[in-house]
Amino acid sequence: MLHSMVSEDISIERVQSHDLWKIEADSTRVEQVITNLIVNSSYAMPNGGKVTLGTKNVTLTLETVPSVQGTEPGNFVCPTVSLSMPVAEVQSTQRAAGGEGRRILLVEDDEWVRRSTAMLLTQYGYTVFEASGGDMGIDLFSKEAGEFALVLSDVVMPGMSGLELVVRLRETKPSIPVLFMSGYVDNKAHFEQIKEGGFVYIQKPYDMYDLLRSIENGIDGAS
């Protein structure tokens, strides 16, 4: 499956420790994160190369926890990704996409999805401001004087929905581009309201290429 996501000149190697600890995790979310990492890595290697996926046991102590936001001391299994590519290509691919410092307000209540998305967008040159819900999104938007190239928001969230959030944000900046995302396929996602409002929408789980393309289209369409 992973090999079908990259071009034929990119190989994928798996290096797994045999003494890994057992973990409790949502397999769908883990697959989405790994998929995004693979696709993201392939964009950085237009001339081919090798992606190495690994896993290792990691013990976080009181001294190391501050460098890993949102965690507590304990034992963890850590995924690793490394890229091997031609030397002449390395310098030219350090920033493989057109983010170029554009500021994105990312509003997503799922911490795993929010942080993995922010990490990947940052690798593509975007400056990402994270909010775990509508109220925090409004506070960040106000604090930054609405200086964002795009708002990337989940649709269904506890408390304030993404649609309600955007209505509030557009009271102060009517022209702000918006990209909605959601994993819901029923009427909870308010598809009719999204359609009537002319908003761009992307279905979860999405691959990184579709997300990047949708973001660029949203920003360019508003300029």
**Tally of domains:** 2
CATH superfamily of the largest domain: Response regulator
Return the structural class. Answer: alpha/beta
Helix content: 25-40%
Spatial extent as radius of gyration: 19 Å
Distance between the termini: 38 Å
Number of strands: 8
Write the CATH architecture name of the largest domain.
3-Layer(aba) Sandwich
Note poorly predicted spans: 88-97
Question: Roughly what is the average pLDDT, rounded to an integer?
Answer: 80
Query: Count of helical segments?
Result: 7
- Quaternary state reads single chain
Q: What spatial order of strands do you see in the largest sheet? A: 5-4-6-7-8
According to CATH, the fold-level topology of the largest domain is Rossmann fold
Concise overview:
The protein contains seven helices and eight strands. The protein is of the alpha/beta class and 223 residues long.
Protein architecture, described:
- Helices cover 33% and strands 24% of the residues.
- It has 223 residues and is an alpha/beta fold.
- The chain has 2 domains: 91 residues, Heat Shock Protein 90; 126 residues, Rossmann fold, CATH 3.40.50.
- Strand 1, helix 1 and strand 2 form a beta-alpha-beta unit.
- Helix 1 packs parallel to helix 3 and helix 4 packs parallel to helix 5.
- It is globular and about 55 Å long.
- It starts with 9 loop residues before the first strand and ends with a helix.
